[in-house]
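Researcher: Please translate sequence to structure tokens.
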Amino acid sequence: MNQIQAITEDNLKDFITCPYKFYFEYYEKRKRSINWRQVVQHVVNKVVYTFYKLPSEHRHSGKVLRLVDEYWSNVAPHLFESRIQYYLVIAKITDNLIQHIQAESKESPPLFLFEKLNTYIEELDVDLSLTFDVAEWSDSSFVIKKYLVDATPEMLMLYYHLSIVFSEKVFKRTPKRVEVITLLDGKKHVFTPTPEDLQEGLNYLQVMKYSIEDPTNYFKTSNVHECNLCPFVKDCDHDTQEFNSKKYLS
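Model: Translation complete:
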């Protein structure tokens, strides 16, 4: 078992997506691949960042359209399974960004905008890092928002626990709300934390840390869509026992 000293948001996200893929990339140091979700997420991040940086009078639906058009111009159609998927994704992302981000047009600029923060979590004996996409702070409210292409229930739970632990440990404050907007389906997932949720979040991250440290218990994802995008799928076609026996002989 390896003792890990630091965990990033991306580490946890990749591990949840597929522990096998995580193993190939982080333990065997194989070259990471880029898939369409990652590219589209990068576009979303740039649109959201630029939009929130604008003066309030310039934050409107027309500006969202122009920003999507500007940043989407570098997205290659061949990354997608088909041309139809390429156009469906841009249509859904654009429509749902307009719907959800336009409501922020009159809000004050957020305290944090894609700010990556690091802190040592004593209970976990690990350095933890998290990027706050949008964090709005006032005397009476603290709201954390994240804009994602899509997210499984497991991914939503990860962001919820990370947000609570980070907020309590770094800011000594419980968020009034944690909002995760998933843009392919247009849903807003709203969580209302309480101070008592801190221990649950610490317990969750402790389990994640132990799981990452012990690759002998890794399992293959059951998400067929992820397998279709994975460059290591042929390795997973081998017998599971053979894969596990290979992992920790050293």
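Researcher: Any highlights?
Model: The two ends are 10 Å apart (CA to CA).
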